[in-house]
Amino acid sequence: MPGILAFTILITIFAVGEYIALKTKATFSTVLVASVLLLFGFWMGLPKDIFVKSGILPVGGVLIGILITGMGNLLDFAELKRQWRTVGVSISTVIMATSIVFLVGQLILGRDLALAGAPIFAGSSTASLVMNTELVKQGKDSLALFVILMLVCQTFVGVPLASYLLKNAARKFKNNESERNLYMNSSEETSVDSERKILQLPADFDKPSFSMAKLGLVTVLSFYISKLTNGTLNYIVIALILGTIFTELGFLEKNILEKTKASGFIFFACIMLLFTNLTKAEPSEIVSLIFPLIATLGIGALGACLAGYIFGKIFKVETYMAICMCLTCMFGFPTTMFMSNEVAFAIGETEDEVKILENYLRPKMITAGFITGIFSIVIAGIVVNII
Q1: Do 222 and 295 belong together in one domain?
Q2: Is 41 found in the same domain as 156?
Q3: Residue 326 contacts residue 98 (beta carbons within 8 Å)
């Protein structure tokens, strides 16, 4: 197969996945659709060297660090300060739920499956990339396949459960007159910080090529810091932290990945790394992983409910809302936004009520989804050193 044909097939499959994700409001994610199409494609005779022929694997391997640095760049400390309860609940619940997945999961499934599944339950395609890359490197193809199955299936557990609980949270809020008055106006404030930051470059450098170069420089620095620690501090975790630090210092602008004009390609190249072990996945192997998959997702969902109840009390956040904040790890953005809007529309009886509910639900759900996604990368960075 010529390289250009291999590349075109892969990018077309990815594009179909993105289209279906858009039309279904992320109920069927890009990763889910692409993985199913590729899996059936390989079973029906799609060449198993398509990833090698396309030349996308070495590119994706290099770009993972840049993607992670870009994730750190998205942290908005001003919004996190406003949503401190949400941040506290999200981090605390996802740590507890993930710990439950590992501690209970290893009694039922064994240490390796429990360790592989825990960071994926915590959320984020990026965490799955980190885990999958390491597992493939170690030759643990069955565990790498389990990671993909976890990623594509947990949406179907998390979305209906969170939607049901979020409706209950919305109803309780709607009946609380004093609370409703606090959300008459949107809390999604925007402010312009005109103060020049320490490492902020002149406007002449605000070009796509310079944006990519700056991301590359921060990522390279992360790589060599990790080398200095002999890998004790994971490269991926350092890239996430330095992405945040250099944004605060002004060297990286907000949403710099979008400014590279290449964010779509970067995500495509990195996500293809997830699918390489699908070439070896036989139907019998997938069937053998169904019980571990159901068990892990069930333990995780119950752990999220327990964690949400406990930390909702501690942080004085309504219980249903606190559980939903934890469950965002199972689907993330943009589903967090779509779900908030849909629940507000379903529960609100007037246009004003819908708006108030949106103001209450949306910032909390979006912030929670982002925090659980970011924290899952940290968890994955820790787990890859011990798996």
Answers
A1: yes
A2: no
A3: no
Question: Domain for residue 192, yes or no?
Answer: no
Contacts of residue 285, defined as CB under 8 A and 6 or more positions apart, other chains included, come to 142, 145
CB neighbours of 335 closer than 8 A, spacing ≥ 6? 25, 26, 27, 155, 159, 369
Structural domains of the chain, count: 2
Q: Residue 310: which residues within 8 A CB-CB, separation 6 or more?
A: 96
Is 221 in the same domain as 282?
Answer: yes
DSSP 8-state assignment for residue 375: H
pLDDT at 177: 74
Same domain for 370 and 235: yes
SS (H, E, C) 109-153: CCHHHHHHHHHHHCCCHHHHHHHHHHHHHCCCHHHHHHHHHHHHH
Residue 191 reports pLDDT greater than 50: no
> What average pLDDT does this structure show over 64-81?
82
pTM, rounded to two decimals: 0.76
What pLDDT is stored for residue 190 in this prediction? 45
Confidence band, pLDDT 50/70/90 cuts, at residue 339: confident
| 142, pLDDT greater than 60 | yes
- Averaged pLDDT, 242-261: 90
Alpha-carbon separation of residue 254 from 77, 223, 249, 259, 297 (angstroms): 12, 22, 11, 9, 34
What is the extent of the structural domain holding 201? 57-187+197-383
Choose between 387 and 311: higher pLDDT: 311
Share of the chain above pLDDT 90, in %: 42
Mark whether 50 and 108 lie in a shared domain: no
Q: Which residues have a Cβ under 8 Å from the Cβ of 82 and sit 6 or more positions away? A: 187, 189, 363
Is residue 95 included in any domain, yes or no?
yes
pLDDT at residue 151, rounded to an integer: 83
Q: Give the whole-angstrom CA distance, residue 42 versus residue 170.
A: 45
3-state secondary structure of 192: coil
Q: Could you tell me if 117 and 146 are in contact, meaning their C-beta atoms sit under 8 angstroms apart?
A: yes
Same domain, 229 and 124: yes
